[in-house]
Amino acid sequence: MTGRVVSVNLGLVTRAAWAGDPSGRTGIDKRPTTEPVALRTGGVAGDFVGELSVHGGPDKAVYSYAREDADWWSRELGREIPPGGFGENLSTEGVDLTGAVIGEQWQVGSALLQVSQPRTPCRTFAGFWDVRDLIKRFVARALPGAYLRVLREGEVTVGDSVTVVHRPAHGITIGETFRALNISPELLPRLLDVPELPAHLRERAERRTAGRPG
Questions:
Q1: pLDDT tens for residues 37-46?
Q2: For the chain, what percent of residues have pLDDT higher than 90?
Q3: Could you report the per-residue pLDDT of 102-140, keeping only the tens digit for each?
Q4: Where are the domains of the chain?
Q5: Domain spanning 2-168: which superfamily?
Q6: Whether 154 contacts 110, CB under 8 Å
Q7: Residue 164 DSSP symbol
Q8: Spatial distance between the Cα atoms of 15 and 171, rounded to a whole number of angstroms
Q9: Which residues contact 101 (CB under 8 A, 6 or more apart)?
Q10: What is the pTM of this model?
């Protein structure tokens, strides 16, 4: 599968009462840049990340969201959602992010990325959009986008292709992982067979599965 990057977005420092970080700062407001951007194992060069306890780091180095899914939300809410409106670093086109397999690898520009986990919405997200029930609606729609690891550091820019170069055989997708963690706990046992799943999500699945009958 080959898609493309339609926007590369970097976070501004935003101060707001709804920011989840104790400092009152958030990097959810991301704006497009036309310059090449370096993707590092620890994150995106030039991108501000707030709430470091829950954002950023190797398993969440890069966040990607599909323009096709953003367009659905634009119609749903009756307003334009610009690139970066989901707090994403990479806005993509022609890539089925919900159907992306945990652990699959993408060649993007000179970087090699790996799909690691879905995004979980938070109150900062709802506050930024000023939609009080956004978290509930986001979970119900289950189009979470994908966090990515950086396996090989490199640069990306607008127009770069997104090529899937490896896909694990287990077949567990971003969408299935999101549903298992949020709305369909009966799917949790399937996550235990995914070696590429971040350790904290595996531990959560193990705890919740241990308490289930059978």
A1: 999 999 999 9
A2: 83
A3: 999 999 999 999 999 999 988 888 899 999 899 999 999
A4: 2-168
A5: PK beta-barrel domain-like (2.40.33.20)
A6: yes
A7: E
A8: 40
A9: 115, 167, 168, 170, 171, 172, 173, 174
A10: 0.94
